[in-house]
Amino acid sequence: MRRALRQRAERSERSANSERSERSERRQLMTAAEAEVLGELRRLRARVPQVTGALAASTDGLVLARDTADADAAEGVAALTAAALGVALRLTDATGQGGFRELLVRGEHGYVATYAAGTSAVLTLLAEPRINVGRLHLEARRSSARIGELVDGALHRRTPRSEPHPAPAHSATAVPAAPLPTRQAVPPLPSHKPKEA
Predict the structure, then answer these.
(1) CA 77, 17, 119, 83 torsion: positive or negative?
(2) For position 18, what pLDDT does the model report?
(3) pLDDT at 17
(4) Using one digit for the tens of pLDDT, what is the confidence trace for 31-44?
(5) What is the Cα–Cα distance from 143 to 123, expressed in whole angstroms?
(6) Burial (CB count within 10 angstroms: exposed 0-12, middle 13-18, buried 19+), residue 158
(7) Using CA atoms, how far apart are residues 131 and 21, in angstroms rounded to an integer?
(8) What is 58-97 written as a DSSP string?
(9) 142-190, pLDDT tens digit by residue?
(10) pTM of the shown model
(11) How many whole angstroms separate alpha carbon 68 and alpha carbon 52?
């Protein structure tokens, strides 16, 4: 019995080490495009001055590039973005709205907007409350498409041609490059009309 438990623990540890190694290698590949992604973030902030912070992160919360004043805050925002992305993916799937594209949160002091950037990354922006949200969406969608090309291209270039493109580390939170086939729409809730006497 002890021997079986020990073998199971050893297999589990080898599997966890292998997964960590693959995840680390994948992160190194994505950060290869960091300079170009940072340039895109800076160009976006120049086009839309009401954007107060911008970061590109992997779908599992690793900061790839940031144009913000506080590095520690960027790490926290990237982690929260990954968590929000997981919820947004479930929500769009459960409601039959297709693949995740963007998420906008409005607070008392401004906006937080997250956009899909290819299959492996997201773009998250912080903006002042007076921003033109239509302009924000227009410019951010362009930038997220470019960032997606850069990050996915870096992953593709570094992957040997004989191997397929690597699956995202957390496929449950992966952002699809194209809309996934949608499930049937959720039926509407029953009407809550008062019963007639």
Answers:
(1) negative
(2) 60
(3) 63
(4) 568 889 999 999 99
(5) 8
(6) middle
(7) 42
(8) ETTS-EEEEESS-HHHHHHHHHHHHHHHHHHHHHHHHTT-
(9) 999 999 999 988 877 765 544 444 444 443 344 444 444 444 454 555 5
(10) 0.67
(11) 7
